[in-house]
Amino acid sequence: MGKVEFKPFIKNSLSSEGEQMTARFDPEYGITWAQMHPVGTPCFNQDLLAELIHYNRSVKNSGGKIFASGKLNPVRYAVVCSKTPGVFNLGGDIALFSKLINNRDRQALTLYSSMCIDAMFARINHYGLPVITISLVQGYALGGGLETVLSSDVIIAERSSKMGFPEILFNMFPGMGAYSLVARKLGIQQAEKMILGGKIYSAEELHQLGLVDVLVEDGEGEEAVYDYCKRQARSSSSIGFTAVQRVRQRYNPITYQEMMDITAIWVDAAMQLGERDLKIMDRLVRSQQKQYGQADQAHPFFSPRESRKTAASNNNAEAELTV
Question: Is 166 within a domain?
């Protein structure tokens, strides 16, 4: 129980329809798209992580050139987004977390968390290529979902999108890059406020904070990606932009070892969770399963009743989880 396994390598994954994600390449603009569509609850289950890892390897191994329309085309942009309506990603697989913690399976929990790092770090490192990475948010991005959003150079969000780190509600923290990514963009104080507060932010609030780069109206997200790429292609400073991203990496790099060290702290914390914390996690799992796919859902992570109950039971969290 709790065993984490890699799926077989996905052939031609730069242009493929997988079980949990679709990869496609637009040669006109040099955009490679990674569109997530996880089965069941839209979280980072093991199979989705495995497909993302294989996709990352394929982008890196391409050397920045993809054969399409009869010729080699440069990869200029790498976009990650979701095909699930109203949800970018709800974060970690809480049902799996609860099971592994109950089983005291530290090894499997460590392997899962290392898969999360592997699925993100390639983007943080720009796949080792001179590409601009873009996150397109159309809906909720919570916990590990927001960490994935933050792994890109540019964040484009539709106005109704909601983002945050609610893990503090069950006595945990987002351990796969949140602190490293937010602290480098907004500073340590803001990073700790977001992580320890448990607040779910609107896209507009994060745009005002400087975390979201481009804010657009609902339904205009994909068009905004193309508009951004067109502007970059016309701009005389596009080379400079890419160079500045490389300078940022050199000046204040996020290393793989840093992420793994923080993940080890996350695993240690997870193994200390008590019965009360695990009961909260189980309630969240049931809420996700019940709420997802219902037309009248108020929030894909918490129902209104549970969000009030859970927030009241944790004095460290802000009771701002309903929409």
Answer: yes
Cβ-contact 119, 44 below 8 angstroms: yes
- Provide the number of structural domains found in the chain: 1
The β-bridge relationship of strands 140-142 and 162-164 is parallel
DSSP state of 237: T
Asked whether the beta carbons of 55 and 79 are under 8 A apart, the reply is no
Would you call 32 helix, strand, or coil by DSSP?
strand
User: Could you tell me if residue 3 is inside a domain?
Assistant: no
Domain presence at residue 289: yes
Pairwise CA distance, residues 147 & 33, whole Å: 18
Nearest to 246 by CA among 128, 161, 120, 72: 128
Pairwise CA distance, residues 51 & 48, whole Å: 5
| DSSP, res 185 | H
User: pTM of this prediction?
Assistant: 0.84
| Residue ranges making up the domain that contains 284 | 16-312
pLDDT digits (tens, 9 = 90+) for 213-222: 999 999 999 9
CATH classification at residue 171: 3.90.226.10
User: Residue 323: inside a domain, yes or no?
Assistant: no
Considering only CA atoms, which of 26, 34, 117, 118 is closest in space to residue 83? 34
> SS3 for 166?
helix
pLDDT tens readout for residues 111-169: 999 999 999 999 999 999 999 999 999 999 999 999 999 999 999 999 999 999 999 99
